[in-house]
Fold:
Amino acid sequence: MGCLTIVLLLSGQAMADDLVFTLTNGTSVVLDQFYASPTGVKDWEDDIPGAETLYPGERIQITIADGRRTCTCDLLSTFVDGDKVEESGVDLCNPGSYEIR
Structure:
């Protein structure tokens, strides 16, 4: 019983460390890929699943379940027309949302 309790506590801790925010496509072009890496990480991490083909005006809840509760991220958005939007040092915890413009 003690092992089960530890596993459940660890699972709860991992869930508490997830970064959850709402992503809104505030542009007039379909979003193709979206990347979020903690500020200071040299390379972009994997494309966030679910954010692709986000149409103008649409929003989606994003969960980054990497065990790091890092609020400040560098963001890269790529669009179907080839344009890119890159922003550094974005706080995704406050207000818990991000709109691509």
Notes: The radius of gyration is 15 Å. The first strand starts at residue 19 and ends at 25. The chain has one domain: 2-100. Strands lie at 19-25, 31-38, 59-64, 72-79, 84-91, 97-100.
